[in-house]
Every structure is written in C-alpha cells, then in structure tokens.
Amino acid sequence: MAMSVLGATMAGAEPPKGEPFGKTSRGEPVELYTLKNKGGLTAKIMTRGATLTELNVPDKNGDVADVVLGWDDVAGYESADNQYFGCTTGRVANRIAKGKFTVLNKEYQVPVNNAPNALHGGVERSLDKVVWKAEPFETHRGQGVKFTYTSPDGEEGYPGKLTMEVSYQLTGDNELRIEYIATSDRPTPVNLTNHSYFNLQGAGSPTVLDHEVTIHADKYTPTDDTLIPTGKIDPVEGTPLDFRSAHKIGERIEQLDKTAAIGYDHNFVLNGASGTLRKIARVKDPKSGRVLTVQTTEPGVQFYTGNFLKGQKAKGSKTYAHRSALCLETQHFPDSVNHPEFPTTILKAGDKYTHICVYGFSAE
Ligand code: GAL
After folding, report:
1. Do the beta carbons of residue 274 and residue 51 sit within 8 Å?
2. Active site residue 341
3. What is the pLDDT of residues 51-87, one digit of tens each?
4. Residue of the nearest CA to atom 6 in ligand 1?
C-alpha cells in the first residue's frame, strides 16, 4: 500500500492505483490515476502535465457526465489542436510581454510562442508537456495523487531549479482540491494554474453561452490588443465584465466580439485577501442543474470562454466548438513579472510558493 503524504493512510482504504496510459512521443510511459468519492464523482489525472483528463459529475437527476475537455490518448494531448486541456500550466501561466523579464538585474528571454508574447511556460518542456512522478494517497478527506516535478535551472529559459508538487484530491464534499507547492534555489517568476475547460452540460455540448456565472471581483486588469495588461486596474462596473451578480455568459459577450479576446478572456482582481481560501466564483448550467463553485488563495482568476476553440474533434469523437467551454484559472495577474505594481510572482530562494484551488460540484 502506498503511503499517504497528507496524513496516515486510512485503515482499510486503498489509495488509487495508476494504470498505463500509453507513451509520449519521446517514449516516456504515462500513467492515469482514477479518484472516486461516495458522491458518485470520478476524476482521472495523468502524469503527463499532471493533467485532469476526465471529471464525471452527476446532474440534478443523478445522470453522470464528463464535464471537462480532453483527449482519448497522449497523442491527442501532444497534437497541435490541444489548447492546454486540463493541464498544470507553468512555470508562468498566461502571458509575458515579448517573453522578456529581468530578475536581479539580469535580462531573460523565454520563447515567444504566442506572438509577440510568451504563453503558458514555453514550447517543449513547459509543465503541461513533461511527465510528472505520481504518488497516490488517501486521507480522511478522500483519495488523491501527489505529482512532483523538478525543472532544472534554465529550462524553457527560466532561472533557477524549481521543485514543484501538485496534489489533486477528490473530497467527500464533492470537491476537487488542487494544492501547489514550489521552491527554487534562485529568484524566479512562478505562476502555476490548472487549465481545465468546463462545460457543465458535458464536454462536447455545443455552447456555454447559457451558463450563469458569478465572479466575486470588483475590478479587472485591462489589456492591450496582444492581451498584455496595460497596468491599469479598472472597475468592472458598467462593463460586460460585471459578474458580481449572476449573468448568462451569452447575455453581453457580443460586446466583446471585436476585442482582441473575442469574448471573455480577462484577469479578474478577486475580492478578499489573497493567501486566504475564499469563494471566488460560481457557475450554473440551468439545463442539467450542475453547479461549479471555485475557491482559491490566489489574487486573480483568468475567466476564458473558449473563444479560440475551433471545432477540434477530441475525447469520444466529440467536437469542441467556439465558446463551448469555460476556464476559471486561479492565478496571479498576467505579465506580473513586468508589473511591479501587481502582486509579485517572484519566488525567492528559501521561500515557499503555495496555491490552493478548489472546484466544488453540486446540482439543483
Ligand atoms: C488561456 C488564455 C487564452 C488562450 C488559452 C489557450 O489561458 O487566457 O488567451 O491562450 O489559454 O488557448
């Protein structure tokens, strides 16, 4: 029996076992772990990219559907059509202007993979593409898997050897709890997130425009037309970004059609103290009755409505149309490393990066 990392393994309870899930094109074996709870939820997470590949959730009638986008195999995840479905994203999630930043008076250039900017940690060895080591566990909260990966100094152009842990746990309260820890031997920017795309009617359903969204944010960070923050922090009031009370995604999205984001793709400055786990968002699909709540310790959330989905055929031969899924990526603000006025993303040697994100599910 594998040892628990978060406490004693429960008597009689078996931590989940990994199953083979094929190989990467580099020949690395990939494993898939299945977590289950008493509420009928099942989560599947693979070692490539510490990626959530499936999340099966009952609706108001007890009918179960997989509510996250993904692929059937590793080749799908490696394909050009994969837009970071379900992965652990980093070392620096979201954009860095022109891929340039300075740490301790030294300038760094990381790969520009979303011209003219750097996006989601790089090209070949970003965190979504590497194979993590898995260690299953079980505590009073439920079944989990802890993934670890150490990124060597200079990987994808980033300074410092970065040691990371991402643990996923499926709790008895129908929550998928994701906890991140990182340490570095040199100061380096770190901004990790999970990049799950949700459709609460089931992945592959045609749209999320009917989903009702609440986000507890009075402010957001406006961007230029390459989606880099201008540095301003503006009120959401009077804009289509005011989700302080519930609105259907489709209600005002057309007002954003002609912007660079072609829809919602914005960083919201979350209310409440960062570092404290607090409820920051709620999404309801009126048809199935499924409700997603999001809690985090992070200062921001990137709310993205799948505007760049392009009808790719993925898991179970389902098609992922434009705006057929949404992401709520808990994180620090985009391009923070070039904005001293934003909460810092620099992890100093000897300090510990921590981040908790809890996706909770119910039906009504
Ligand atoms: C999101 C980002 C979008 C897009 C997407 C991946 O996190 O906000 O602009 O890049 O990832 O396709």
Report:
1. no
2. no
3. 999 999 999 999 999 999 999 999 999 999 999 999 9
4. 83
